[in-house]
Amino acid sequence: MPQYALLIYHPEGRNPSREEMYAEHQRWQTYTQELVDAGQYKSSQGLKGVDSATTVRVRDGERQVTDGPFAETKELLAGVYLIEAEDLDGAIDIGARMPSAEYGAIEVRPVWG
Which domain holds residue 79? Predict the structure, then answer.
């Protein structure tokens, strides 16, 4: 079955309350368990904030290391799920059920191989 990466983007500056974070955490646990039960879950990881990011480039054989994310954006990469779905439409349906799709964005991308 084809695999898809669901890249999770959150709006910059989002600052939920403790109660909101707890409620959302519960929704994420339910969401993930539903994928596991359906045999579609492969893995997932949340990412630390962009203040912990380091970007590496090699130009003309010289390594360049900078603090911060690859690009300045209004939405920040917050995590990734690796799932299996019958096709792109199925993967889009799975992405649309993510709790953060209501305030952020989910990029659905097929995995090579």
Answer: 3-110
